[in-house]
Every structure is written in C-alpha cells, then in structure tokens.
Amino acid sequence: VQLQASGGGLVQAGGSLRLSCAASGRTFSGYRMGWFRQAPGKEREFVATINWRGLRTDYADSVKGRFTISRDNAKNTVYLQMNSLKPEDTAVYYCAADPTSDYPSNSAMDYDYWGQGTLVTVSS
C-alpha cells in the first residue's frame, strides 16, 4: 500500500486546512487509518484514527472539537479537517494504514504503512 498525503501549507492561527491521504496499490477494504504528527524536536504523536466503516473515531485530547477525521472508501482516501488551528499544531502530519484490524488505534506501532508526510505551519 502506498499512501500519499497532501493539503498541508501555511495558515494563520484560527484558520482551517483539510489534509487528504490517498491510498493505492492494494484494496482499501478493512483498513483502519490514522493521522499522526511530529513537531520539530518532538516525538511523533497521535492525532486521530478511524475504523473501516467510519463509524468509530478517536482523537487526541489536544485536537478534540477542532479536528475531524473522515474517509471515502470509494476513493480510497482519508481526510483530516482541521479548524481553529493553533501555532502548536505546527508539525509534519503523517497518515498511516493498518490492514490487520478494524478497531481504531492511537498507537503508531499498530500501523504498517505510512505516507511521506505533509507540513502544516500555523502562524500566530
């Protein structure tokens, strides 16, 4: 599975961005998906996850109420809508996929496939 993340960029605090992650190379069926991020000098951290049918989601406390994860299985794409962005949201955002379970997971160790990352910069 190849994952291609896009949609990052520079935005002012309070603004919005939508990240996309397109999967190719293998059926998307049954995959749980996740978004993680890594800020400069920090470890990679969990952001959001969603199960195959999109009925179960989970979010990091720092983004709850501001970010929304969704997916379109017909397009093999998962999205991360980010609203009310803050400077502390600045990071490289990575999408991840795991074909072995349908339960959402906030652990990076559970994901087998990773995208290349897309940079989000939020200015104050």
Can you tell me about this structure?
With 124 residues, the protein is mainly β. Helix content is 0%, strand content 49%. The chain contains no helices and eleven strands. It has strands at residues 2-6, 9-12, 17-24, 32-38, 45-50, 57-59, 67-72, 77-82, 91-98, 113-114, 118-123. Strands 2, 4, 5, 6, 9, 10 and 11 form a seven-stranded mixed sheet that branches. The radius of gyration is 13 Å and the shape is globular. The N and C termini lie far apart (37 Å). The model has no long low-confidence stretch (mean pLDDT 94).
Rg, nearest Å: 13 Å
Helix content: under 10%
Overall SS class? mainly beta
Unreliable sequence segments? none
Largest sheet: 7 strands, mixed
Overall mean confidence score, pLDDT: 94
The tally of beta strands, per DSSP, is: 11
Number of helices: 0
Terminal CA distance = 37 Å
Overall shape: it is globular
Strand-residue proportion: over 45%
In N-to-C order, the SSE pattern is EEEEEEEEEEE
Helix-strand layout with pairing:
Layout: E1 2-6, E2 9-12, E3 17-24, E4 32-38, E5 45-50, E6 57-59, E7 67-72, E8 77-82, E9 91-98, E10 113-114, E11 118-123
Parallel strand pairs: 2-11
Antiparallel strand pairs: 1-3, 3-8, 4-5, 4-9, 5-6, 7-8, 9-10, 9-11
Give short descriptive properties of this protein.
mainly beta; four-stranded antiparallel beta sheet; seven-stranded mixed beta sheet; about 50% strand; about 120 residues
